[in-house]
Amino acid sequence: MIEIRFAVGDLATTSFAYSPLQEAVFSLRSLHDPARYPHHRPWLRRIRPRLESLDRELLTALVAPWLWVPDFLTPRPDRARPAFADELDRVRGTPLEVVVADFRATYRTEDALPPVVARGLADPGAFLARIADALDAYWHTCLVADWWPRVQSILEADLAHRGRVLAEQGAGTLLPGLDRRLTWTGSRLQLSTRDFMVQAPWADVSIAGRGMVLLPTLFARGAQPLIDPSRPPVLMYPARGRATLSETPPPVTDDALVRLLGRPRARLLLLLAEPASTTELAHRLGVTPGAVSQHLAVLYDAGLLSRTRSGRTVRYARTLLGDELCR
């Protein structure tokens, strides 16, 4: 059991974020054990030929057989929605002694280090550069075009849901609702480690004014902390709706809805059970963002959709009227 202790005021500095770098690194877990991530199988089939052009020996070695990842590869986000390139720059700036220590903590014993890691740690500066270059190539070759927009849509929907729970039911319901491993008792969040693949010497954590960042991910079966409890507090938890990653756009079977709205707008309305952006919807439907934008504008003007802006991104969701129409 890990106990995370909150002092007065620590809940006020607890926030949510998601990390494209974390999801890219965690996605390497599926190369180790595809059976644990069935919703990613269609994507894995698509990218398998592309992996041959990458530094696959190194990419695979970034994840231990028990699916641990060196902490420096998933730095705590400094804002709610960081850019992949900015996060990768932070990785490139990791102190070399941290790189060595994190790999040894991940693999637990020197003998367990894969040959590519053991060789690399002899020259950690060059090894760190190779890791960053390999992740950058992996991101642009396998993830950014069609995988990340769908993953980002799921993560955004999770954050929107958590915000509603916090506003309507409070932190006492929000925190244990992140995962079945978590329980909230007064000022303490307890994380059960009973079903962890490997039991590590995790210690209890005191937030102590450092702030807690909660990160949804598509690659965890339960809540998990960083390996090193001395680092700024982070808790990863399973994102809601991750099973939808493998779904194809829903067919429109209600003839009345099609007759009323037309097939493209009816399909968009069904897809927007969870918030999404124009770009994400275009990727899911295999059409241009411009075509989607025109239909969204009509649905919005008719009162069937709401929209909110987050930075440069506008996200759409069904209104109550839109929900009733879909029923």
Structure description:
The protein is α/β, with parallel strands linked by helices. It has three domains: 2-15 and 151-243, no CATH class; 19-144, no CATH class; 248-326, Arc Repressor Mutant, subunit A. Helix content is 45%, strand content 13%. It is built from 15 helices and eleven strands. It has helices at 20-27, 29-32, 41-51, 56-61, 84-92, 96-107, 115-120, 124-143, 147-169, 171-174, 255-261, 263-271, 278-285, 289-301, 320-326; strands at residues 2-5, 15-16, 182-185, 188-191, 205-206, 213-217, 224-225, 234-238, 276-277, 305-310, 313-318. The strands form three sheets. Strands 3-4-1-5 form a four-stranded mixed beta sheet, with no helix packed on it. It has a four-stranded mixed beta sheet with strand order 2-6-8-7. It starts with a strand and ends with a helix. GO terms for molecular function: DNA binding; DNA-binding transcription factor activity. Keywords: DNA-binding, Transcription, Transcription regulation. This is Transcriptional regulator. InterPro entries: ArsR-like_HTH (IPR011991), HTH_ArsR_DNA-bd_dom (IPR001845), Metal_resp_trans_reg (IPR051011), WH-like_DNA-bd_sf (IPR036388), WH_DNA-bd_sf (IPR036390). Residues 256-326 form the HTH arsR-type domain.
Which helices and strands occur, and which strands form pairs?
Blueprint lengths: L1 E4 L9 E2 L3 H8 L1 H4 L8 H11 L4 H6 L22 H9 L3 H12 L7 H6 L3 H20 L3 H23 L1 H4 L7 E4 L2 E4 L13 E2 L6 E5 L6 E2 L8 E5 L16 H7 L1 H9 L4 E2 H8 L3 H13 L3 E6 L2 E6 L1 H7 L1
Parallel strand pairs: 1-5, 2-6, 6-8
Antiparallel strand pairs: 1-4, 3-4, 7-8, 9-11, 10-11
Helix pairs in contact: 5-8, 9-13, 11-12, 12-14, 13-14
